[in-house]
Write a structure and sequence with these properties.
The complex is a heterodimer of chains A (126) and B (392). By secondary structure, chain A is α+β, with helices and mostly antiparallel strands. Chain A contains three helices and nine strands. Chain A has a single domain, classed as RNA polymerase II/Efflux pump adaptor protein, barrel-sandwich hybrid domain (OB fold (Dihydrolipoamide Acetyltransferase, E2P), Beta Barrel). In chain A, strand 1 and strand 2 form a beta hairpin. The relative contact order of chain A is 0.27. The model of chain A has no long low-confidence stretch (mean pLDDT 96). By secondary structure, chain B is an alpha+beta fold. The chains are: A alpha+beta (126), B alpha+beta (392).
Chain lengths: 126, 392
Amino acid sequence: MSNIPDTLKYASSHEWLRVENDVGTVGITDHAQNELSDIVFVELPEVGKTLSAGESCAVVESVKSASDINAPATGEVIEINPALGDNPDLVNDDPYGEGWFFKMKVTGDPEGLMGATDYAEMIGES
Amino acid sequence: MSDARATTTRQRQPPLHDVHARLGGQMVDFEGWLMPVKYSGIVEEHHAVRRTAGIFDISHMGEIWVSGVQAADFLNWMLTNNVNALEVGQAQYTLMCNEGGGVIDDLYIYRLGTETFLLIVNASRTGPDALWLEEKLEAFGQKKNVTLKNVSAEYAAVAVQGPAVAGFINDAFRGSGLILVDRLTDLKKNEVDAFALGKHDVYVARTGYTGEDGFEIVAPVECIEAVWDRLLVAGESSGLKPCGLGARDTLRLEMGYPLYGHELNEQITPFEAGLGYFVKLDQGEFIGRTALAEQKEKKPTKRSAAFRMLGKGPPPRAEYTVWGKDEVWNTGDQSILGKVTSGTQSPTLGVGIGLAMVQAHYAKPGSRFEVNIRGKYLRAEVVRRPFYKRPD
């Protein structure tokens, strides 16, 4: 079973969002990293770029394929995870911790995201 | 993250479906078959095959019997390699081409008797192959002396690959072969024998698609689970791991082996694909010979090149465009040289590797070009196949 922390919000496209004082941290879920397996490269958005919720903004590459990552909220990118350049496998090892993708200054209230229970149900693990 | 793995009702489940479910296989669509792409992880499974042993379900592959007094003559007319060079108990990689030299399929042929052959063909090509063989048998005019039987629905197959396999496979199939050997590991590379398993015959060839020592076992659907279980038990203490199609793909790509639909199709010839070794122009008349002889004389204008990325970055993928300064037109501008046909991050080498169909003068080892990866032009160098060589 996947790890699905209660404290996060989830997009149907398998990104998670943690908002603290308007700053949202974004990554992909444990379920997503497990499905992808063996992540070998992560392409992140540029700091300063303004993203709209649902917009494709990053790419995660496993051995098998390249997948788009969508912004779970609207706002400006303020920081990217520099560790993923040399160690993309952090996404596999610690998807909610050291494997975070980027931080954004969130504009308004994020919409259309799920809580842990609904996300668990969506991936068939409720 | 976009998830494009929709399932359809037309998918066929392999006979080992229950086994995959029990082992936690992640199932995906492959050419209409619901097959495991991985169990524990592609890289882990890949390393298992390079270091110890892995077992693959390859039941999606097709099987066609060709038998009769004129079977060898018919097959020699249909295939590019020399069937007459095969003794009973030998297997051969070969290609079936159309009149223009384009590849209908790449396949393995087992000679199981003087007049009995088994063709192991690609899942996606089983239908087209069977039709092509039937159509050409009409033209061959020896229907009384050649029998074709597409038995793909009645047979399943398993591959067991890796340096540790020879140490345990005799425990899975005891006793001597029905054709050739006293025990299974007496088979040499590209030899094949039949073994009795209950009331069934199973065919075991010392062949594979990984670059490692290993065997491929073709068996009636009714007993494929027994084959799988026997191998799993025999290999358990050697670290035998179930492996999915994901690792099968990275393993074959490290060897530079072609995959039909990527490196090969009906518009690509064996010479263009770098498979000229398997075309025996002097074996007598065969379909595509005239066109292939002409191409060999003139040299192909496009060729499949094995390349590795220079420096860190995302891995190349099929369909990415390949760019370079065109020496033919010498415009000084970058232009498209061709396209990537397969690409991945090599688990063994830790770099992006791929195969690309490019203008022939760029296919030589040492040539450099650039791969367009999401708008960035990243440098790559053409290298000799295989990318990875097993230490002897």
